[in-house]
């Protein structure tokens, strides 16, 4: 069972912990199992909001499939020590993913994980992050950035976006869609970030019929889905499906499915897959189609 480990720094923000934790807890309730752990250099961790948290001082054994999340905090605080930063470096070097929410990016920077990578943080501290880590490329005014298994986010509520993104990359967009809807967060902020999942970017509407169509596409986006299949699933005509879908999302069902396939292929390519493998696993029948779509990006 994959493990999600939260590294808690004193004066941590509650929502930076609770938002992602709720995503993975809800995922577990829906059958996408994750074991949640909370570690810190102290067993009692103060929060900005005044609710004390408890954590373990001993880290669990980590595998490459495990995820370490560093939630943000408000300074002044006692920063993570050398041994903790070493653990972050070693987990990443072993193939694991690490994520920093808001000020959590600073901990990743102290561990040397931002060097030469794209990253982001809360808009109020982007200049400071760029000053502290001049070899990093700070991307401004986006919700989150992922660069070679190092994920950073703008902070606070964007931790939920990050967690849904990480869930999507591991279990597919349908899993993230299920969790988002269970948490009543499918009406997402648009933003300008290309890192925002296509599954979430086009869920900012309240048409339940279209959500049902999207649920079907999310679950089977690598397969061939005809308009008649979608129409039968929701009890509408094919013309009505197309009209409602375009009104709600600005796309046709096929364009939405293609966006999911392209996003999946980009993730696979980023993990080292060949174009042929990425095209096949994302549902493209021909790698030339994937090459043409990427050339238009």
UniProtKB/TrEMBL annotation:
GO function term, MF aspect, one: sequence-specific DNA binding
UniProt key word Transcription regulation: yes
Transcription recorded as keyword: yes
Annotated InterPro entries: Class_I_gatase-like (IPR029062), DJ-1/PfpI (IPR002818), Homeodomain-like_sf (IPR009057), HTH_AraC (IPR018060), INH-QAR (IPR052158)
CDD domains: GATase1_AraC_1 (cd03137)
SMART domains linked: HTH_ARAC
Domain (HTH araC/xylS-type): residue spans on this chain: 211-297
UniProt cross-references to Pfam families, sorted A to Z: DJ-1_PfpI (PF01965), HTH_18 (PF12833)
Top-rank lineage group of the source organism: Bacteria
Keywords on record: Transcription, Transcription regulation
Name of the protein described by the UniProt record: DJ-1/PfpI family protein
Organism in which the protein naturally occurs: Nonomuraea rhodomycinica
